[in-house]
Specification:
1% helix; globular; 1 helix; 5-stranded antiparallel β-sheet; 8-stranded mixed β-sheet; mainly beta
C-alpha cells in the first residue's frame, strides 16, 4: 500500500510547576505537498512505440498530467512538467504538488487499493465529474496514458496506438479511415487502471489495466470512422494519428485482445482547400494497431497516387472537373447536408457529396439517374421546382470506386429543403439525401447540464430559422417530421394551425403507404410514403432500436458532425419524467409561451428554444401540427427499454416530459454535436 507522507511530530511539552510536568501529544498535521514519480510505460516488443521515430517514449517539459483523487475521485489537480523534473533519459519525472485528499473508497467494499490516479494528456480529461477508480477521456485523438499510484509512483499504461508518416505536397487537410468503416476515434473513453486488494492474503495486488473501452458510465460513446487532421507537408515533420486501443478483455492487459483491427487495410486521403480529394495512399492488407504500438509508414510521398475522376457519366454540371466544386462529404458522409441559404457566396455554386449509405463508406449501387424528389419552402406556397436546388447530376469516380452526387444552387438563393434521389436503370430509388438550405448558419449551445452530453443545434432539423422568443414561433422555425428509425424527412406543417396539413412541395407529394406495414428496405425505396399504424402493429414491420443508436448509424438523419440525441433516464442531469413543477430546481428552468408557441430551457448560462411544432399522428392521411393544443414532440434515443421516446412539450397542460410513443409517429428532430 502506498503510504501517504504524514509526518508525525511527537513533541513533549514540559510544563514546569513545583509539583509535576505534564506531557501533551499534538495531533498529526496534514502534509502540505505530495511527491510522485511518473514512469513512462515499458517498451513491450510486440507493442513498441519508438521504432526509429519517437511516438511518446519520454517526458518533455510542458507535458501536462492530470491527477485525481478525493471523494469519488472528483478532485483534480493538473501538473505541468518542468525540465528540472525529468530524468536524463526522459523515462521518469518527479513532481511535487499541493496536497490533495486521497480516494475515499478504499474501505467501502470496493476492494480498491489505489489512492490517486493519473492521466496524460490533461487536455483530454473531462474534469468536474466523479471519476471513481477510472481514467476517462473525452478526446481520443491524442496519445493516451493512464496510471494508479503505488508507493508514490505512477507507472503509466499505454491506451493508444500510433500511425506515423511524413509527406510532401500542397494539401489543406487529410482524412484517415479504415476500408471497412472501423471506429478510429471516440468522444468518450475509459480505462480501469487500479490496484486491488487481496482479501484472502490481506495484501495489495499488483497494479494492472483491467480494461479499456468506449463509454461505460462516463457518457454516451460516439464513434467516428474518419480521423480528419491537418497534415504538415514539408516532408520532414512527422504526422501522428492516434488510435484508441479498442476494447480490452476484462482482467488483462494483453495486446492480443485489443487494438483497432483494420480487416481490409486503411487509407489516407488528401484534400485541397476546396475540399477536393487530390491524392491518396491506401493498403488492402489487414492490420491490427495495438495499444502502445507505433506503425511507421515512413515518407509516403512516393506512394501517393493522383486522384482523378474519369466520369462514366458526363455530368451536365461540369463535376468534378470544375475546381469550384465543394465536397460536402469530405469530413464524413451523412443522409443530410447543409448549404447556408443566407450566404450569397453559395449562389450559382456547385456542391457534391459521395453517394454512400448514410455515414458509412458503402455505395448505394449502380446509379443510372438522379433527381430532386421534392422541394419545399416550409410554408403554404407552392415552391418553384428549381428554386432551392437549380440542377442535379452525378459522376462515376475513379476505378469504379463510388459515385458522387452533384447539385447546383440557383443564381438567386431561396431557403427551403429538398430531397435528392438516386435511381437504378429500372427507375427504383437506391438511396436519397436531404439538402437543408436554412436562412442562416446553424449555431449550437452546450446544454449538457440538462440534456446529457448534448451540444445542441439552435433549431430543429429542417427548420429555416431558430425560434424567436421575441416575435414568437413562425412556420419557418418548425422544421421537418421523421418516423422513428427512418433517414428521410417529411415536410413540416404549412401553417401554425391544428390540422393545417403539410407544407406544399414541388415534386412527389407525401402519401400514406397503402399496402400495410412497410419494411425498412421498402422505406428506402419509397421515401415519400408514410408508414401507417397497421392495427396494433407498427407501420414498419422490421424496425428495431438499432436503426437509430447511441453511435450514429446509416439511418441517422443528421448532417455530418451531428447525430440524434441520447438520454439516460437514470441521470440526474436531464429533464424529469414528471410535470414541470417536479423538475430539478438547481440552475435549471423552463420558460413557456402559449401565445408565442415555444418552450425555452435554460441552465442559467445557456439556453435552447423548442417550437411547439406538433407531430404527425399515426394511421392518418393528413399531416397535423397541433397549434391549438400547443404541443411539440422531439425524438430522443433512450436506455429505458423497448419503446421509443420523445420529449413531449405540453405547456398548456403545465407539463413537459419524456413519453414513450409509436414508432410511426412523425416527430421533430433536434441534432446534437457528434
Amino acid at each position: 500500500m502506498k503510504k501517504i507522507a504524514f509526518f508525525v511530530f511527537g513533541a513533549a511539552f514540559l510544563a514546569f510547576s513545583c509539583e509535576k510536568a505534564a506531557v501533551v501529544n499534538e495531533p498529526e498535521p496534514t502534509p502540505e505537498t505530495l511527491t510522485f514519480t511518473c514512469v513512462m510505460p515499458e517498451e513491450d516488443p510486440e507493442s513498441k512505440v519508438s521504432l526509429d521515430m519517437a511516438g511518446k517514449v519520454a517526458w518533455e517539459a510542458g507535458d501536462e498530467i492530470m491527477i485525481h483523487g478525493g471523494k469519488d475521485g472528483a478532485t483534480f489537480q493538473k501538473v505541468t512538467l518542468k525540465a528540472s523534473d525529468i530524468s536524463s533519459d526522459g523515462k521518469t519525472a518527479t513532481i511535487t504538488m499541493a496536497y490533495m485528499e486521497p480516494y475515499d473508497r478504499l474501505s467501502d467494499g470496493a476492494g480498491v487499493y489505489s489512492s490517486y490516479y493519473a492521466q496524460y494528456p490533461a487536455s483530454a480529461v473531462p474534469t468536474g465529474d466523479n471519476m471513481y477508480y477510472e481514467c476517462r477521456f473525452n478526446d481520443t485523438k491524442q496519445f493516451l496514458m493512464g496510471a494508479c499510484d503505488v508507493d508514490n509512483t505512477f507507472k503509466f499504461y499505454h491506451l493508444s496506438g500510433v500511425i506515423a508518416y511524413k509527406v510532401s505536397g500542397s494539401f489543406a487537410s487529410a482524412v484517415f479511415s479504415g476500408n471497412s468503416n472501423e471506429a478510429v476515434a471516440y468522444n468518450v473513453y475509459q480505462a480501469r487502471i487500479r490496484r486491488d486488494y487481496d482479501k484472502t492474503n490481506n495484501v495489495p495486488k499488483d497494479p494492472r489495466c483491467y480494461y479499456w473501452k468506449p463509454g461505460n458510465g462516463s457518457g454516451t460513446p460516439v464513434a467516428s470512422s474518419v480521423y480528419a487532421h491537418v497534415p504538415v507537408t514539408d516532408g520532414t515533420t512527422i504526422n501522428y494519428i492516434y488510435l484508441p486501443s479498442g476494447e480490452g478483455a476484462d482482467g488483462s492487459y494483453s495486446v492480443s485482445s485489443s487494438g483497432v483491427n483494420f480487416t481490409n487495410g486503411f487509407k489516407i486521403q488528401f484534400f485541397d482547400d476546396l475540399g477536393n480529394e487530390v491524392k491518396r495512399v491506401s493498403t488492402s492488407t489487414a492490420k491490427n494497431i495495438h495499444a502502445g504500438q507505433l506503425l511507421n509508414l515512413g515518407d509516403i510521398t512516393s506512394h501517393l497516387y493522383t486522384y482523378t475522376a474519369p466520369a462514366t457519366h458526363d455530368s451536365s454540371l461540369g463535376v468534378p472537373a470544375d475546381n469550384s466544386v465543394y465536397d460536402l462529404s469530405k469530413d464524413g458522409s451523412a443522409n443530410c447536408y447543409i448549404v447556408n441559404g443566407g450566404n450569397t457566396d453559395n449562389a450559382d455554386k456547385v456542391f457534391k457529396f459521395k453517394a454512400y449509405q448514410g455515414n458509412s463508406t458503402n455505395g448505394v449501387g449502380k446509379i443510372s439517374s438522379v433527381e430532386v424528389l421534392w422541394t419545399t419552402w416550409n410554408d403554404s406556397n407552392t415552391p418553384g421546382a428549381t428554386s432551392v436546388i437549380a440542377d442535379v447530376d452525378y459522376d462515376k469516380q475513379a476505378a469504379n470506386e463510388y459515385y458522387e452526387i452533384c447539385f447546383k444552387m440557383p443564381a438567386t438563393l431561396h431557403e427551403g429543403n429538398a430531397v435528392i434521389a438516386a435511381k437504378n436503370a429500372g427507375g427504383q430509388i437506391l438511396w436519397s439525401w436531404h439538402i437543408w438550405v436554412p436562412k442562416s448558419a446553424i449555431a449550437t449551445a452546450d446544454m449538457s447540464n440538462i440534456f446529457v452530453g448534448a451540444v445542441m443545434m439552435d433549431r430543429n432539423l429542417g427548420a429555416l430559422e431558430p425560434v424567436s422568443t421575441t416575435d414568437g414561433t413562425s412556420v419557418y422555425s418548425l422544421g421537418l417530421y421523421y418516423e422513428w428509425g427512418r433517414k428521410d424527412p417529411f415536410p413540416g406543417s404549412k401553417r401554425l394551425e391544428s390540422g393545417a396539413g403539410y407544407a406544399l412541395v414541388a415534386g412527389t407529394a407525401p402519401s400514406v403507404h397503402s399496402g400495410g406495414a412497410m419494411t425498412i428496405e421498402e422505406t428506402i425505396k419509397n421515401p415519400t410514403e408514410y408508414a401507417p399504424k397497421n392495427g396494433d402493429a407498427q407501420g414498419i414491420s422490421d424496425m428495431d432500436f438499432t436503426k437509430w443508436g447511441k453511435t450514429k448509424t446509416i439511418y441517422d438523419p443528421c448532417p455530418p458532425g451531428y447525430k440524434l440525441p441520447y438520454i439516460s433516464r437514470n441521470s440526474q442531469t436531464m429533464l424529469s419524467t414528471d410535470y414541470v413543477t417536479a423538475l430539478p430546481a438547481a440552475g435549471f428552468g423552463f420558460e413557456t409561451s402559449t401565445t408565442g408557441y415555444w418552450v425555452k430551457v435554460t441552465d442559467g448560462s445557456n439556453e435552447v428554444v423548442f417550437p411547439l411544432a406538433g407531430y404527425v399522428e399515426e394511421g392518418i392521411s393528413t399531416f397535423y401540427a397541433y397549434k391549438q393544443t400547443v404541443r411539440g414532440a422531439i425524438w430522443y434515443l433512450c436506455d429505458s427499454g423497448s419503446s421509443p421516446y420523445h420529449l413531449n412539450f405540453r405547456p398548456s397542460e403545465s407539463r413537459n416530459r419524456w413519453e414513450s410513443t409509436h414508432l410511426n409517429r412523425g416527430c421533430s428532430v433536434r441534432c446534437v454535436v457528434q
